């Protein structure tokens, strides 16, 4: 089905048709034009330079076979290089390093397995109890949209919805602007630090997120409101790894918060744009197809633990290796869907994200929506494709 879908929209054509040459220099994954046209660029990269240097350092893998192999390659690590500001040795120096040392995307076995198992078990227990509540939350937000007036779909409408849902799911009341600061700071952990000022903003955002999540955890202990925070608190904890219990809970709750905000907003916009362009019935399969065709979360980072070879290219120890999920989806000759990662690197919040996107878009589709993409552009966020400027008008 996925292979047919790519071919039906032109994504499955032979790489030999990608004739436009690229410069021999590195690719800038924060450049707005590169982000907007990455699908076309990735076709050329797969044909000419499947292992491509990145301006901020590291290498980008675009070939689906290389990406698939990299997920299970034991020579590739999750733990930041000792030269990185996020290295475990810096956890007392930077909050960013401390957070990274507590969450699965930056951990290696055995602690990766222990923390991920604890988080996954609590997440799915909460999801089973919470899933039915999503529709009521979506209806509340959609009913509040003023009809016949233009609204920014991502920045206004979708953002308020996802903050409400993920806040109730985790068990924290957060203003939309605060949530944007928290989750934006977490996402910047997955990108090379642009400069000292940006890294400082990341540390401030993570510090504020920790404080609010720990405060929410203390409140949930008092009121015992159904929440992910309480489930994480009651479950058997993994090895604390030298951190405090409440800090470990807060950092992993932040990871789930981030799973439910930016990429979900982006996918909502992508679904609504596709719906206007080609039609269809909104369901979970339609949502997954849309995410597959235009993946909001475009890369996953790993670190070379020793000198190795990938795609015929030598990779030095400590080199960041970025797995292009979007390119792997577009270039795969199989039914493999890389959108949410693979195996131990698969997004824990996938089912919640799909449920949120499906429910919201299905209900919006009943409101006679009009989508204006004349000001469509993308946030300059490394490794992600987040649309901005999409305008929604509904006619209840």
TrEMBL record:
EC number(s) of the enzyme? 1.14.-.-
Give, as one word, the top-level EC class: oxidoreductase
- Presence of the UniProt keyword DNA damage in the record: no
An example Gene Ontology molecular-function term? oxidoreductase activity, acting on paired donors, with incorporation or reduction of molecular oxygen
The record's annotation in InterPro entries points to: Cyt_P450_B, Cyt_P450_CS, Cyt_P450_sf
Record key words, sorted: Oxidoreductase
Q: Looking at the record's lineage, which domain of life comes first?
A: Bacteria
Q: Which PROSITE patterns is this protein grouped with?
A: CYTOCHROME_P450
> Which PANTHER family does the entry mention?
CYTOCHROME P450 YJIB-RELATED, P450, PUTATIVE (EUROFUNG)-RELATED
Family per record: Belongs to the cytochrome P450 family.
What is the name attached to this protein's record?
A: 6-deoxyerythronolide B hydroxylase
